[in-house]
Structure formats: C-alpha cells, structure tokens
Amino acid sequence: MSGLFEFVISNLLTVSFAVAVIGAATPLLLAATGELIVERSGVLNLGVEGMMLAGALAGFAASQELSYAVGIPAAALAGALLALIFAFFTQTLLTNQVATGLALTIFGIGITKLIGEPYTGTPLEPMAPLFSEGPQQIPVIGPIVFGHDPFVYLSVIGILGTWYFLFRTRAGLILRAVGEDHNSAHALGCHVVGIRYAAILVGGAFAGLGGAYMSMVKTPQWNEGMTAGSGWIALALIVFATWRPMRLWLGAYLFGALLVLQLRIQGTGVSVGVTYFLTMVPYLATILVLVIMSWDKVALRRHAPASIGKIFKPAS
Amino acid sequence: MMKGLKAVLSIAAAAAALTAVGSASAQDDPFRVAYIYVGPISDHGWSYQHDQGRLAVEAHFGDQVETQYVENVAEGPDAARVLRQLASSGVDMIFATSFGFGDSVIEMAEQFPDVYFEHATGYQRADNVSTYSGRFYEGRTILGNIAGQLTETNQIGYIASFPIPEVVRGINAFAIELRRVNPNAEVDVVWLNTWYNPSLEAEAATALIDQGADLIVQHTDSPAALQVAEERGVYAFGQSSDMIAFAPDAQLTAIVDDWSQYYIDRVQAAMDGTWESMDTWDDIDAGMVFMADYTNMPDTVAQDAEALEHAIVAGQRHPFQGPIYAQDGSEIVAEGQVLDDTSLLTMDYFVEGVTGSMPN
Description:
The complex is a heterodimer.
Chain A: H1 2-12, H2 15-40, H3 48-65, H4 68-92, H5 97-116, H6 133-136, H7 141-146, H8 150-168, H9 170-180, H10 182-187, H11 192-218, H12 230-240, H13 245-267, H14 272-295, H15 297-303
Helix pairs in contact in A: 2-8, 2-11, 2-12, 2-13, 3-4, 3-5, 3-11, 3-12, 4-5, 4-11, 8-9, 8-13, 12-13, 12-14, 13-14
Chain B: H1 2-5, H2 10-21, E1 31-36, H3 46-61, E2 65-70, H4 77-88, E3 93-96, H5 102-111, E4 116-120, E5 129-134, H6 136-150, E6 155-160, H7 165-181, E7 186-191, H8 198-210, E8 215-218, H9 224-232, E9 235-240, E10 251-257, H10 260-272, E11 279-282, E12 289-291, H11 299-313, E13 324-325, E14 331-333, H12 341-345, E15 354-355
Parallel strand pairs in B: 1-2, 1-3, 3-4, 4-5, 5-11, 6-7, 6-8, 7-15, 8-9, 9-10
Antiparallel strand pairs in B: 10-12, 13-14
Helix pairs in contact in B: 3-10, 4-5, 6-7, 6-11, 8-9
C-alpha cells in the first residue's frame, strides 16, 4: 500500500501530471462542447470525428503555409463547412440524422486523406505557449495556468461561454426549447430550422478546433485518420455528462486523467491488467450513466433533450 | 488515376481498385501483385516502407508486373474479406504485411491454391504461403548500445504496441545490450495496443519523460514520440523509417526496413515458376534492415555503434548470446550459448533490466 501512496505522491500530485491531463482532455473538451450545443438544439450529429479531421488538416495546412494565427480560424471554418453539409441534409432535406452523421464521418476521413496527401510527412514547428516566460515561472500555478497554447484557453472559454449562453441568456433558452419540443417552439414563433443550422455550424467549428489541437499542438504533423476515434469519445462524454456543461468540463478532464493515468501506471511496472481496466473506465462509466438514466424516466426527461434526433417538419 | 481512387474506406478502395485494373487485355496479361497494409502508407513508418518496396517492384519490372495495394486493413475478419476480394479478382500474388493478418492468410490460401501468398512477420506457412521478416532485433541491439552510453537518468522509456514475440524480442535485444554497456540502466515498457495512434503515442512519450526517462524507444509506427522528445529535449530513435525530419535534434538513429530486394526476388521467382513456400528472416547483412545515420551523439558513441554493427554483420556478435538473465535473475542462456531462432520466434518473457509486466 505504501507503494501506491508513493505512486500517487510522485506521479499524480505533480504539475506535469496536471499539464498532461489538460493536454489529453483539451481536444475532447473542444469537440464535446460543440456537440453539446448541437444536441441541446435537438440534433444528433455523429460526424464529430469527420469534422475534427477536417479541422486538423485545415489547421495544419494553414499554419504551415501561412501562420498559426490563420490556422486556428481555418480549422474552425473547415469544421463548420463540413457541418454545413450535415445541416443542409438533415434540416433542409430532412434526412435521417444518425445515417447522415455517420456518412459525414466517413466523408471526412476520405476527403481529408485525399486533400491532405501532400502534407503527410512534413513537420510543423510546435506552437509556442500563449503567455510569455514571466508568468510561466511561477511555481505550480505557472505551468498549469499560464503554460499552454491558445487552444487550451479557447476550450475553457468555450465551455464557460456555452454554460452562460445556455442557461443565462434568452437565446440559449430558445435553443434549449427547440431541443426539448420543436413543435411547441415552432408554435411560439421560434425559427427552429434557422436555430438548428446555427447550432450545427458552431458545433462543427468547435470540432474543427478540437482536431486542430492534435495536428498543431499535440503532434505537429498531419496524417490521415490521426484523431483516431477522439470524436467518438467526445460523443460518449456528452452522455456521461448528461448534457450539462459543467459536468462535461469535469468529465473531459476525468477522461483525460484516466488516459494519462493508465500510461503512467504502466511506466511503474504494475500489472498490465490494471491499466487495461483503466482504459475501459470511461466507456463503462458512460454505459453506467445510460443505464441509470433509462432506469429513472424522470431523470431521462430532465437531462436528454427530448427532441434529439427527431426530424422537424412543420405542419404548414 | 490509381492515386485518386485510394480515398475513403479500405474496402471501398479495394473495390474501386479492382474495377480500375480489371480491364487489362487477355493476351499480354501482366503478373498481378497486391499488397495489404495495416496502416496508411503515409505513416512514414512500417506501411510506408512496405509501399516503398512495392514501388521498387514496379520500377524493376515495368510493364511485366502490375501492382495494387489496400491500406488501413484491420487485423481480423476484415483482412480475410480484402484478401478474398483480391484473390477472386485474379491477382497472382499477395503480400500481407502485418502479423495479425496471419489467420486470414492461411484461410484464404486454402480457398485460393493458385495464388501465392506472402505473410510478413508471420509463422504459419502452407504450400502457397511463405513468411518473411527482418531481424530488426539486430538494430535494437545497436540502439541499446547507444542508449546505455547516453542515458544520464539510467531510465529508458519504451513505447510498445502489442505483446507479440516480435515486439518482446526487440525489447529484450535492446535491454540485454543496454545492461551490458550500463548495468544500472532500466527499461520502462508502456503497452499501447495499437500500431498507429499519434496522439496516444505522444501521450505515452510525455508520461515516460515525466517519470524520468531521458531516452525514448518506440515500436509503434508514427513519429509522434520523436516530436515529443524533440520538444522536451531528450533523445529518441526512429522506427521503421528515417524520421529525422520530425526530430532533427532528438533522433539518434533509426532502424530502417528495406523490403525492395526481397519483393523483387519473390515476384521474379513466382513469375519464373521457381517460387517455393519458405521462411525468410533476413538481417542487416542481407540489407533488409539498415541503420539511419548516427546523429546527435558524440563521435566515440557513433564509432562504437558502427563497430557493433560491423560485428553483427560479420557474425562476431549475436544479439542473444549468453549470459542472459530473466527478470527474476535466473539464467536463461549460459555463457557462450546463443538463443536459436525457434526460441526467438516464440519469446514471451522479459530479460533482466526490463520493468513492467507482459499482458497475457
């Protein structure tokens, strides 16, 4: 047991652990924040992985050709562009959202591979932290608070802004109303389709940023399929967080911490079985949340947007 | 034309490729060779090197041979489906380039007895199935020598993919030479259970460096770990191909696979009708494995590495020559003895100097 205690002290209660967790969680947090807004408006977009890849490629390409300052908006734009396709199909042509979302992921994987071909195998200088050396020198707080690249701050501003928007503004209330019952919202005069279009585009932009964090910061390289399933973890994260922004924030860091933890435990030579279990925990936890939610019908109704995934067709 | 088709899913690409090449005229039919890769050819590692071999075949034979490939083929039932599609489309010879394709290769080889199958890093053979691999562990021995001289923290981080003999053998070859040069050094192994996941590979490198490793070795396919090493100011080794572009100050050398000659020889044999089922396990001497330039290290270390490389080529040094001790200190190979190939091919234990356990 003293070994465990020692491991916690020397590995988990360290600045480098906190920094690693933030690094692992940021792409998930960005992508999940966007998808949260989309799902809160009553739309299920399973194309997160595809939009992340679009952002990863656009961010990398624009950074290499021009600059990081262009790379970040380019990533958001690329994600939004892919989302626009989804919005057009599901909101205007009223296609099935699950099928369209899956198609968007497959499309995203393919198109980025095709366009990204010339960029594979070319390195990119890593992005510098946003703050200067000074604040970073502060013990503990310096590296954890001031040591990051712009994406990390964007992800925090994004989730706090999303919380404020959803629960403290009128526009956010309308978006949630659309997500709960689009027919009632429509009867009250809300422009359901327009609101959903906007939500899907914002969601795509966030997913694009999440992907770009991987290709511009974490591993400054472009490679096809490099997000390696992060988009799906982001989708699970929303269910885990029961569509609540603050729980989502916490959940992203928890998922990130489990990932980093299993790698660090391995480095100390503990039985590998333990680490396999830890890799499963995020998914087990998500399933557990689903089970609990379906048990308690009231809780289900309170958390999941009631109109999610349903096609809106005004009776006119 | 072919380039434009290799997008979207591997299966879709396979189907597309088949229709694209299915129209060759009956009279001067070229010999058709197909490759299946576990990752993308853009990984700049394992699959990339196999594809370089394929291109060498094309360049060597010109119009006589027509090649095609399917990348990102998942190990397991997917591989069988892709193999069946290729074989039933009239392909004459198939190179399956990952360990996990083995069962599918054997299954399909029974159904298509007229197709020549070649399985990289495999151990199961049949009348129309050969296996081939490189003795990459020779390169690992050289890495161990360099690492033992350069480490200051005496802690080496090793990013491993799957617990198969190929990977375990590499870890052990590395650790044996590391300990011979530096008896205090230790190897920390982290298993990722994937060949290719840049983000996870970077995460693992970060964790190992945070825990005190000042040198990173990898047996995964992307250059992500090297990039982390570069940023953190520690050393690392490239894997499968020269990755110096990603880590100009961190890469010490790289074990590079060169399949070109083997592929040309085997295609030639199949065309001549002299092809036989066999197992090839070629080494640095045969040119299937070579070391990238020794960089970022003192001259004396580079000279030692080169001398060791020569000794291995000349047969004066064997990476697994005794005495070799197991993790618990018991002797596995006595002084003067050398492990035979069968023991190397079934290796499922760690030697002394490796911390960490083996997944079952």
